[in-house]
From TrEMBL:
Listed name of the protein: glutamate carboxypeptidase II
Source lineage: Eukaryota, Viridiplantae, Streptophyta, Embryophyta, Tracheophyta
GO CC annotation, single: endomembrane system
Catalytic activities: Release of an unsubstituted, C-terminal glutamyl residue, typically from Ac-Asp-Glu or folylpoly-gamma-glutamates
Coiled coil: none
Pfam family of the protein (one): Peptidase_M28
UniProt entry tagged with the keyword Metal-binding: no
Length: 285
């Protein structure tokens, strides 16, 4: 019997997270699971800051996958490891950030963001006051086209960094240039939802956050086809987009860790917050 995505779904993307429908035929399904308690492990690499060691810039990606996970999450994990390699080379040349940089590898994301959520809950008292920003990459590369979401105070920094990194699909342009051509305007999305590791840091601890990725959707999400073969044939055959994400992600962290004055634009943040006020709130001013 043929199953097809229901009209409630994005018809371009399907996976075990989606809703399925059939014709009027009843379907019986059996779900077999193993209920057990297991230990999970978050892994952190810390580069201690020289001037403000108690202020933290976090870069995070989860490493557990439904199946092979070439896109979700291993594309992000590969980029995070490359950033670690680049920072190590800089440290050998004598560099040390002014603020502490923490590279975070979260466990048990696919079980409900357990790794990041438990860590946030355990450290909640310090996170809101000491974490400068959280920079998240889940699926670094899903296909063509650069996309980003952020809290408003980080919009300007994201744009400036995009102007410094070469576009992986055009030698003559930066990511910013191609971003403008593709979207006509710079469209930075607002972060929402609870199925990403930025959710506990942003929504529970109030940490300014960014989420980066190439390619809006990919049709093998959470299936056994999310493999190295799919990545080399469809997602990023030359792995140039991976390099581009590493450039943007790593530079964002460097600015947040090394700029003498934090590169936040709270004027824009206030303007956007005003636009989201209800008519009742506006009338109270």
């Amino acid at each position: 019997m043929l199953l097809f995505p229901s009209k409630k779904c994005n018809l371009r993307v399907w996976g075990l997270c989606k809703v399925y429908a059939s014709s009027s035929i009843d379907i019986k399904a059996m779900l077999q699971v193993e209920k057990k308690i297991a230990t999970i492990h978050n892994v952190f690499a810390i580069i201690r800051g020289s001037e403000e060691p108690d202020r933290y810039v976090l870069l995070g990606n989860h490493r557990d996958a439904w199946t092979y996970g070439a896109v979700d999450p291993n594309s992000g994990t590969a980029v995070l490891l490359d950033i670690a390699r680049r920072y190590a080379l800089m440290m050998r040349q004598g560099w040390q950030p002014q603020r502490t940089i923490v590279l975070c590898s979260w466990d048990a994301d696919e079980f409900g963001m357990i790794g990041s959520t438990e860590w946030v809950e355990q450290n909640l008292l310090n996170l809101g006051s000491k974490v400068v920003a959280y920079l998240n990459v889940d699926c670094a590369v899903q296909g063509p086209g650069f996309f980003a979401g952020a809290t408003p105070q980080l919009d300007n920094l994201l744009i400036e960094v995009a102007k410094k990194v070469q576009d992986p699909d055009s030698e003559s342009m930066t990511i910013y240039d191609n971003w403008m051509i593709t979207n006509k305007v710079i469209n930075i999305q607002r972060l929402s939802g609870v199925d990403y590791d930025f959710a506990p840091l942003l929504q529970h601890a109030g940490v300014p956050s960014v989420d980066l990725y190439y390619g809006r959707d990919f049709p093998v999400y959470h299936t056994a086809f999310d493999s190295y073969n799919w990545m080399t044939n469809h997602g990023d055959p030359l792995f140039q987009r991976h390099v581009a994400v590493a450039g943007v992600w790593g530079l964002l962290a460097l600015h947040l860790a090394d700029d003498p004055i934090l590169p936040f634009n709270y004027v824009l943040h206030r303007t956007i917050m005003e636009l989201h006020k209800s008519p009742t709130q506006l009338g109270e001013r």
